[in-house]
Amino acid sequence: MQKNDTAVTAITDIGVNGEGIGKVDGYTLFIKDAVIGDTVEAKVMKAKKNYGYARLMKIIEPSPDRVEPVCPFARKCGGCQIQEMSYERQLAFKEQKVRGNLERIGGFDGELLDQVMEPILGMENPFGYRNKAQFPFGKDRNGNTVTGFYAGRTHDIIANTDCALGVPVNRKILEIILEYMEQYGVSPYDEKSGKGLIRHALIRYGFQTGEIMVCLVVNGTAKDLSHAEKLTEKLCTLEGMTSISISPNTERTNVIMGKTYEVLWGQGYITDTIGGIRYQISPLSFYQVNPAQTEKLYSTALEYAELTGKETVWDLYCGIGTITLFLAQKAKSVYGVEIVPQAIDDARRNAHINGIENAEFFVGKAEEVLPKYYAAHGENAAAADDADNADDMAHADVIVVDPPRKGCDEALLDTIVKMKPEKVVYVSCDSATLARDLKMLCGNGYELKRVRAVDQFPMTVHVETVCLLSHKSPDSVINC
Ligand code: SAH
């Protein structure tokens, strides 16, 4: 097929980005917004030898899984990819995506996966789940200041203050900001010229506490924000308002937040809880965006770890210590490792405000910190036959990893294999790298015991997975 050709095709599969896949005489078409089960007319926009990307022109016969999107901007907006697919079908797609990767990349056979895969954990109400949103500001074609979301793969702003994934209060906050900008002539930032003041509004909402944070990212300082007190006055009328701040960002960059923040009103953070643990969240801290599902994700990780209170646990890629503190409640001691120093500051503070004393945190790369400790406290001590020195830290009963999309570094996997923890709990946001890493671990003494996908991001193609690996022959320590 060639560019601008049109064709009618039945959608028989879903691509990794949620696009429908159809075949025309053996030629594969990827069609955004087409749902599996649809028959559609599509126009080829980009043609390669064996496959092409096509635009959905007409739905000839809708799929039984096709639903009316909740948001009128669902197709244009870059935030959601599969809002037109029934939620049930979304969950089946995500489960299949994890399974497919474990089979193809991990080399696990179907029979084993039938045994170890547990049903995906979805949401009862898959909308309004996000506790954080970052809205860009700009001008529309008529020169009006607008805020909303970027259209898919562009920086064109779709004016929409009412995202279906966010909380209802977002809209009120954004309208107050827009009104303030209009009244006092405060300009939105223009990416092309680098001029203008307001770049983004970060809004965070504590689902358990009802506390609200607003942080304006400005191309300047607090002094440039004329009549800022008028803005804070209005925002304070909203129930739950706890923290209003600005974050200066004068760089010509796609990075949203500045490197610092300054409080305009209230305190610099909000508090929220997950599974009974309190977290203080400042504008620059990382915090999971779907707290209801995060609790399910961490509870699954905790269940898989099967802690009795006697275990030494390492939590690698620990961020602000969310999983670490969850585990600490049931373990003897927990060690968290994270590359971002500010996240470790947060982790230590979170341990402190929860009165958790059996958690210790280290800044550094997981693939450097763990091998170093193992060499210093385990390997050498064992070689010197110095049992006293082979202390807690070199030993691990359970190792939990929750790496970014690229998965675990090989040096880390090698060390895990050497340390031989009885269990490895792998939390993953990318099932392809997960499958690659599981293959390595299962080729080196581990067995895949349990797998469960958790839907942290309904309406998008992303899916989290928790896996339990168990050592085939755990070292039985003989104390004589
Ligand atoms: N477990 C945390 C965070 C998971 S996100 C939670 O659930 O909240 C992955 C984390 O890994 C991020 O915080 C990132 O900063 C960190 N990270 C990335 N590369 C790393 C590395 N090589 N070593 C340690 N941490 C790393």
TrEMBL record:
Stored PROSITE patterns: SAM_MT_RNA_M5U (PS51687), TRAM (PS50926), TRMA_1 (PS01230), TRMA_2 (PS01231)
Residues annotated to bind S-adenosyl-L-methionine: 288, 317, 338, 402
Annotated SUPFAM superfamilies: Nucleic acid-binding proteins, S-adenosyl-L-methionine-dependent methyltransferases
Source superkingdom: Bacteria
Any Pfam family hit: tRNA_U5-meth_tr
Keyword entries, A-Z: Methyltransferase, S-adenosyl-L-methionine, Transferase
Keyword presence, Transferase: yes
Single biological process term from Gene Ontology: methylation
Enzyme active site: 429 (nucleophile), 429
EC number: 2.1.1.190
Sequence similarity: Belongs to the class I-like SAM-binding methyltransferase superfamily. RNA M5U methyltransferase family.
Protein name: 23S rRNA (Uracil(1939)-C(5))-methyltransferase RlmD
Organism: Ruminococcus turbiniformis
Gene: rlmD
